[in-house]
């Protein structure tokens, strides 16, 4: 029985590497075996399954329709094996090495850095290489072990994601501004106000609001001021420059202190997920797992209570 399992895994591994590299020669080099052995492993796999997985030419390998479906199944099997091995390894291996992690600018500094500091303090053999940007980096191409993203993490076959929290956004302003300009109660009244927008890639992001029937709609506001840095946007709002749409993790202290006031225009209870992402092609090393687990634990209360 064990011989059959070993043979099956050999064939699956050779097949997946051949698809990813585009040739038996490159797959063999990656696996550390001969080109002949790799080709034979795939041939035996096809014979056992009774289907042709790859169309071979002198220059390339191409997946058949059946091969494409089988390839996706193989990825899931290998992912489960990698996860199981990483889980066992994480129980015995010391958390060590350099972790390259990419974070959103404001959220990373305010919410993630305190967690990373605690993890680093408890793991003296762990080194952190942290970068901050609000653009979506390519983890594989740019060599990151881990990234944290706000909102839609995107659909990337090369990445694995774990939801580590959720965020909520509210419409708010400084009490002095609202005393001077009035308190809007419906989104249509915002045209009479100075609105402050967060800009991403040079474009103001829409605000999500709830209609009277509870449906959520995205509203494109016409901002007086556009700011592409979260903390600077919050600071401008506290100073009374206008009305802003801020995440509660960013505005929490100012809301509690009274420096900011919630504008009574309803927004969704959840604005979007907070996700940790790492490359599918790499094992979930202990250095990655310890940070992800710490973030899950720390970011449970990512919202503040607002009326």
Range of helix content: 40-55%
* Name of the top-level CATH class of the largest domain: Alpha Beta
First-to-last CA distance: 63 Å
Strand runs, count: 15
Which series of helices and strands comes N to C? HHHEEHEHEHEEEHEEEEEHEHEEH
Radius of gyration: 25 Å
CATH superfamily of the largest domain: Periplasmic binding protein-like II
CATH third-tier fold name of the largest domain: D-Maltodextrin-Binding Protein, domain 2
Estimated share of beta-strand residues: 15-25%
Main β-sheet: number of strands, strand sense, barrel status?
Answer: 6 strands, mixed
Number of helices: 10
Nearest-integer average pLDDT: 86
The helix/strand class is alpha/beta
Tell me which CATH architecture of the largest domain applies here.
3-Layer(aba) Sandwich
Silhouette: elongated
- Residue windows where pLDDT falls under 50 for at least 5 positions: 302-307
Give the tally of structural domains: 3
What does this structure look like?
By secondary structure, the protein is α/β, with parallel strands linked by helices. It folds into 3 domains: 2-90, Orthogonal Bundle (Arc Repressor Mutant, subunit A), CATH 1.10.10.10; 93-165 and 272-298, 3-Layer(aba) Sandwich (D-Maltodextrin-Binding Protein, domain 2), CATH 3.40.190.10; 169-262, Periplasmic binding protein-like II (D-Maltodextrin-Binding Protein, domain 2, 3-Layer(aba) Sandwich), CATH 3.40.190. It has helices at residues 2-21, 24-31, 35-49, 65-92, 105-122, 139-142, 175-181, 230-238, 248-257, 286-298, and strands at 54-56, 61-63, 97-103, 126-132, 146-150, 159-167, 169-173, 195-200, 203-204, 207-210, 216-219, 225-227, 243-247, 261-262, 272-279. The strands form 4 sheets. Strands 7, 8, 9, 12, 13 and 14 form a 6-stranded mixed sheet that branches. The chain has a 5-stranded mixed sheet with strand order 4-3-5-15-6, covered by helices on one side. A two-stranded antiparallel sheet has the order 1-2. Strand 3 (97-103), helix 5 (105-122) and strand 4 form a beta-alpha-beta unit. The radius of gyration is 25 Å and the shape is elongated. Residues 302-307 have low confidence and may be disordered.
